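new request in #modeling-help
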Amino acid sequence: MKLVDNITGVEVLAGDECIALLATEEVGRLAVSVSGHPHVVPVNYVMDGDAVVFRSGDGTKFSAAGTVVAFEVDRFDRGTRSGWSVVVQGRAEEVTAADQPELVERVSSLPLSPWASFDKPHLLRIRPTHISGRRVG
Amino acid sequence: MKLVDNITGVEVLAGDECIALLATEEVGRLAVSVSGHPHVVPVNYVMDGDAVVFRSGDGTKFSAAGTVVAFEVDRFDRGTRSGWSVVVQGRAEEVTAADQPELVERVSSLPLSPWASFDKPHLLRIRPTHISGRRVG
């Protein structure tokens, strides 16, 4: 069954389809508040069940730890003007070996290798409180 | 000359290169604050000089009018694990025919056609106060 937003006419994706689509990509965009203003940065991520996991240095991404963030993944085809997007909202938490050794071990085994190779000592995880997805075209 | 961030080792793009790259794409991601929390949505856009222009209905995107937003565009190649991203920060303003007839006329002639075809009566413009870009791989 195809769900359609009755205001926009755009197809709305079910939660399980959103999670499945998130697992097909490896770069998303993390939106955080910095000094009260929104900021957005691309991140390499991997899924751990329905949670988004990424590594961070000490900069913008790490400032998200302990705050509510939004995370967007999409795939669009300019030729056919079609595609999908999924947005996850939730609190970003730092995952440490001291607090959650089993989680660190599991996450460390996931295929997460940042493209930018500078040191990223922090492991962050977004546990979704809201997931939405849309498909156009 | 190639500029490199001395903390991360990532290549930093000059402002004119960022503007040139923005002009090569047509979908970006708009980060806004909604009830104090960051939210991010994909948008079809076009460049008007160094300003980002997009259409909006009455939803999340339009809530950005009059506020400081961040706007991200990227292109990544998973095969080579390389790509670039550009982030624009600035105030989003609604552009109306009453206030800025010449601007509306000029912007209306730009190749801006939203992929999702529902009614989007508002025209918004982000005038950058800060532009940054990175290249990896």
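bot summary: Residues 28 and 125 of chain A are 13 Å apart (CA to CA).
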